[in-house]
Amino acid sequence: MGSLKVKNPVYPVMSILSAGVILVFGLVSAKTVAASYYLAGVWLLFLVFGYWKSCLAIVPFAIVMSAIFCGITYALSKDAVTTYAAANRILAVCVAVIPGIALEPILVVRNLSQLKTPRMITLGMMIALSFFPLLRKETQRIREAMKTRGAGNALNPKIFHRAFLVPLVVRLVNIADTLALSVETRGFNAQDKNYTVYKEVKFGLRDLAFAAILVAGSVLAVVL
Predict the structure, then answer these.
(1) Where along the chain do its domains lie?
(2) Which of these, 9, 56, 29, lies nearest to 218 by C-alpha position?
(3) pLDDT tens digit string along 111-150?
(4) What letter does residue 163 receive in the DSSP assignment?
(5) CA pseudo-torsion sign 180, 181, 186, 188
(6) Structure confidence by residue, pLDDT tens digits, 69-85
(7) How far does the chain reach from its first CA to its final CA, in angstroms?
(8) What per-residue confidence (pLDDT) applies to 219?
(9) Residue 102 in contact with residue 51, Cβ under 8 Å?
(10) What's the CA gap between 162 and 203, in Å, rounded?
(11) Cα gap 167→175, rounded to integer Å
């Protein structure tokens, strides 16, 4: 996932808002042809603004998930319109996650701190964003350890509990304690006192252009 990060992403808060707009529009207007054109246009917009790694990485996932859900939907409903809507909903989710997987978590925390967001929110988000990458790494380490010991596959119900689940829970408890101590020793607290941001995230013309194009495209898709 680290290789998908963008060096010069769109303004973090606006990236989150754009993901929400894309998702809502895609889900609400899924049965219309305009939804497909809108999602394709947004995908190209991200591509132009430097998100090409995330845009290309999401394509295989979108194809596989669309095929699976469309197949299930058509098998149950026998309706082409409903199946078409299911495809658009899956594509909406896939396009909406592009700015998220390409955005450095620290940029989101810095941006929220600049906007004087309550510290409980920023601290909670910082811990959460740090926790999930660690969870993925620990899961990989436990699975590799199982292979090294010849314990077998983690999906095997006979060994899942003692060889995978128990070590994972123990590691998660240790990671949670470590993260809490790390936040405390670095001087973070939940009180909304005066604080500064080491490296501010600035809103530039590039961000304004992105927002203007996205809003114009959304309005155009609704009108047409």
Answers:
(1) 2-105+204-223, 117-185
(2) 29
(3) 888 887 777 777 777 777 666 677 778 888 877 877 777 7
(4) I
(5) positive
(6) 999 999 988 889 999 99
(7) 37
(8) 84
(9) yes
(10) 50
(11) 12
